[in-house]
Amino acid sequence: MLQTSVSFLVFLTVFGRVVAGTVQVRTAPMVTLDNATVTGVTSGSTSQFLGIPFAQPPTGNLRFRLPKMLPPYNTSFPATAYGPACPQQATTLPLPSGLPAEAIDYLTNSVYNLVISSAEDCLTLNVVTPSNATPASKLPVVVWIFGGGFEFGGTNIYDGSIIVEKAISLGVPAIYVSMNYRLNAFGFLASQEVKDAGVGNLGLQDQRLALQWVQKYISAFGGDPSKVTIWGESAGSISVALHMVTDGGNPDVFSELRSWKAPYYDALVAETGCSDATDTLQCLREVTYETLLTAVNQSPGIFTYQSLVLAWLPRVDGVFLTADPQYLVQQGSVADVPFINGDCDDEGTLFSLSTINITTDAQLEEYLHTYWIPNASTTTIAQLMTYYPSDPSQGSPFDTGDLNALSPQFKRIAAIQGDIIFQAPRRFFLQSRSGKQSIWTYVNKRLKTVPFLGSFHASDLLNVYGGSDMASYLVRFVTNLDPNVGESTDLYWPQYDVTTSQIVLELLDGLVPQALTTDTYRAEAIAYLTNVTLANPLCLTQIEFANELEDTSTPKKTVTIPIHRGKPSNNADTDEDEDKVSSSSDESEDDTNSDEEDVDISVPSISLKPGHREPPPQRDSPSPPANVDIPPFIAPNAPESEQVLKEKFRKFWMASIAEGFKDDLEEIRKEPNLGPSRLALLIESLASGADVFSSNSAGTSVNEMEVVLGQLP
């Protein structure tokens, strides 16, 4: 059971080159755990204790079993190097021909493309502290859960010293913890056999055991076990959200469970030669590591044709997760702690590179029906496609017009995938919890100029592990339960309130790094997706546990999504709770007031009975359409492209060309009546070469941009 003292930080997007550097050894720090002395290393202003085992090795007969806590530490050991990551599912980045070098560079230098040392004996964690921390320090603690689609990833590619040094620089020192957990089939095997043995969601159970370890031992490092915040990205943020969804919602509803299909388990059994075994699960425990890993690598991955419809992911198992997460959120079975969540603007682009051969409406409809929502009627899918039209200007990367159309359906598919997995759950969770706890949300719109990818999934990690402004917000939240407390030049970040402002913090490139907007973009489309996923829970895809008893207490209904039409407010509640969270991908339904407009997006025959789904009709999975030629990327003509003008203006500013003009703009920025929205408008106008006046209409006129841009190469 998760300790109530643990709180959460979930942000659901982010990847980039964030590789931990070589540790420079100086004076060796030491801590005492039980009867053992653990020796770490010093790096800069931090002490690092790396590769500490927190569970018995999940090997041999402990494979596919719940993690077991280690006995007390009785033998001293060095903790000077990261432990191996858990077994990795083989991944090949989709790099279609015609993809520009800039996009390829971002992908090939990302965590998706790193070679990580791995082994089955992998359950270790790392602790990074300020070098002057003592057991009496009682510092707040950050626990990082890495992402990777529940297929790959590890702790050694994230340098926790960056976070600790950022906290020290802000005057709010903190401790950083990261843990490995089992992945792919090793951690998320699912079948009737797995359910009967009570060994589902082992990766999540590993995380929970690591959190229990933190509660028991973190005080020895100078941490306060009552001030623990969980951070997560991508699969890590989903994990954090699932730790928030308590298991006390309505467990009796799932007193009888049945499974009807476990195709990936069956395929794994066949690939390992266990088909004829009386006990297939025990047979899987006994095959060699190499045999099992080879079989795992035959299963679909996150960059294969079915993309984010993952083979291995958290399931409703009746133990760790007692019902579909959306249902638990609606029932109010959520940890009552402050949290932050957020997404990148173009979450779906990266995962749509593997589906560029889908070029027609008919192919897209078949794809959605086969992989995403097999239970949905053709009417539901047709309606979904009207909310996400084939018009490239409406697709992702958003706000790029007709540019970045890698194939006829690419931007459309990217918009659907980004919203159904990231934006819709984030908004659902916010709207469900608004008014019940302190919450903040953000959207990352940086790197918009990366061709075809835009502000792609995980790109905000560059900000966090680069020690930039987002890291500052999050570190302040860890210490104060509020991202705004303390001295800062960052924009004030108001809380999210569904009944008034629905404010979102935007992270931007250019002169204005942060701005405020409202969380109303694609409101009807995202509301429709929410209802579709209520009827077709995504965490139940491929292996469903269905309630055999009719739940008459829950009426059939759809979600009414409140859409606030007012302007954002700069005022924010400052209520503080004793625990905390920060997140990026979640779910929502809430009461509304008379000042709001409700948009009732109905989906026929939706029942909120948890987990109840009829098996879809058996369908042959379509083969990916034949390869299509990808048109080469053509840079837009500068005189005709606002995007290029903006980029040139950014370069102009950063190069400090025309210092006098820069000084004029700085004076405008300082004007007391010039709010963030007006300043953003000013920059937009400057980028397009327009005349601009300050907000009181009596300030400086700026009309030199077009001339200056014309002098640039």
UniProtKB/TrEMBL annotation:
In this chain, the stretch annotated as Disordered covers 551-636
Annotated signal sequence is: 1-20
Domain (Carboxylesterase type B): residue spans on this chain: 29-493
Taken from the record, one Pfam family name reads Rsa3
**What are the alphabetically sorted keywords of the record?**
Hydrolase, Signal
Give the Ribosome-assembly protein 3 C-terminal domain ranges.
649-694
* Ranges of compositional bias, category Acidic residues: 586-600
| GO MF annotations in UniProt | hydrolase activity
Matching InterPro entries, A to Z? AB_hydrolase_fold, CarbesteraseB, Carboxylesterase_B_AS, Carboxylesterase_B_CS, Rsa3_C, Type-B_Carboxylest/Lipase
SUPFAM superfamilies in the record, alphabetically?
alpha/beta-Hydrolases (SSF53474)
PANTHER family per the UniProt record, alphabetical:
CARBOXYLESTERASE (PTHR11559)
Q: Which family does it belong to?
A: Belongs to the type-B carboxylesterase/lipase family.
User: How is this protein named in the record?
Assistant: Alpha/Beta hydrolase protein
Naturally occurring in which organism (per UniProt): Boletus edulis BED1
